[in-house]
Amino acid sequence: TWSNVPAGPPDPILGVTEAFKADKDPRKINLGVGAYRDENGKPYILPSVKKAEEIVQSSKPDKEYLPITGLPEFTKNSALLAYGAESDVIKQGTVAITQSISGTGALRIGGAFLARHYPHSKAIYLPAPTWGNHIPLFGDSGLEVRKYRYFNKETVGLDFEGLKADLKAAPEQSIVLLHACAHNPTGIDPTPEQWAEISDIVKEKKLFPFFDMAYQGFASGSTAKDAFAVRHFVSQGHQIALAQSFAKNMGLYGERVGAFSLTTADPAEKARVDSQLKIIIRPMYSNPPLHGARIANAILNNADLYTQWESEVKGMADRIISMREKLYTTLQKDLNTPGEWGHIKSQIGMFSFTGLTSPQTKALAEKAHVYMTADGRISMAGLNGNNIEYFAQSVDAAVRG
Ligand code: PLP
Ligand code: TYF
């Protein structure tokens, strides 16, 4: 029956983990997948999450199905976290929102909703480069994937002129995907002034902005600061789509906690949109899982735990920043590694786009047991005081060839 099914390639990101697991060398380092690790290289369960879990368990919750759009308290608090309590869309109750299977599921519901109901275009513009999964995800949702320039290889920075030119050249009312903060894979975000300019172009061209916010809190250490772009667009009168993930900022990766929302014109429109979100979700997976949403809600709903959580997010962000400093200093100053490494310090969020070439990443895996994606992206959280020297020396050797 399946003799015509061809073998597919491994996932470019998750395939790295498989190669890492198969390597038996004790010095091996996995900088592939973007998952936070503590200073001992171990997965990190946030203390606030542990407390939240105790609160959930002590209430002896049942295992009934959630509504199609998830735990209502959780989605309400998730919207507050993203849009802010001061936002008009929150005050006026015009945010249509559903719980989702983490950020990926939120993007997929959004893709399906736009493919079915956005009347103006099927084209979605993604930054080049972008998170690899965006491309098949939106294609499989029934949208037509296109690109806008984002990364400038020469400056190892934002190609702001290219970005503006490409958005201006896009057909009116196209959909544009924007990484809300901590762009994956480049670690390069627009400045607030640049965001304001992007917002103006989006308005002028009547583009539809779809924000992917997978790292709220991870870029700056502050969830409010990291929501700047989303809140600015909303304050400028844009209607937006938003995918939220709690995988990284609460460390709830495998619990699959997220939300998808659309801002709407008025409460009646919101109610119609809500009804269509349910119609999309019901035949996909019926209703979302319980446990993670309860944990996230227990944090978002409790002032003390919320404060504790924010400081733990900042702790993760700060540890990554200290690894950036250390890696930069070791490569640039101590080892004098050929090239300019300042971008490692200036990039933000989970990743650094090192500029290492595909052959260099291959050599690093084969000779040094150091694993990263072929585009030279490293997950900064995989570095720690025990392995960073070895990593820097391995990079130095790979660059010198
Ligand atoms: N969007 C971006 C840009 C990401 O980097 C990720 C995860 O790495 C996601 C979305 C979704 O992740 P998850 O489905 O685990 O929330
Ligand atoms: O490292 C990255 O960019 C992501 C991480 O279900 C990831 O691809 C891994 C598994 C998953 C979603 C995201």
From TrEMBL:
It catalyses: L-aspartate + 2-oxoglutarate = oxaloacetate + L-glutamate. GO terms for cellular component: mitochondrial matrix. Pfam families: Aminotran_1_2. InterPro entries: Aminotransferase_I/II_large, Asp_trans, NHTrfase_class1_PyrdxlP-BS, PyrdxlP-dep_Trfase, PyrdxlP-dep_Trfase_major, PyrdxlP-dep_Trfase_small. It is found in: Mitochondrion matrix. One of its GO terms (biological process) is L-aspartate catabolic process. GO terms for molecular function: L-aspartate:2-oxoglutarate aminotransferase activity; pyridoxal phosphate binding. It comes from the Eukaryota. Gene3D superfamilies: Aspartate Aminotransferase, domain 1 (3.90.1150.10), Type I PLP-dependent aspartate aminotransferase-like (Major domain) (3.40.640.10). It is an enzyme of class 2 (transferase). Residues 27-394 form the Aminotransferase class I/classII large domain. Coiled coil: none annotated. SUPFAM superfamilies: PLP-dependent transferases. Keywords: Aminotransferase, Mitochondrion, Pyridoxal phosphate, Transferase. Its EC number is 2.6.1.1. Its main location: mitochondrion. In eukaryotes there are cytoplasmic, mitochondrial and chloroplastic isozymes. Belongs to the class-I pyridoxal-phosphate-dependent aminotransferase family. Homodimer. This is Aspartate aminotransferase.
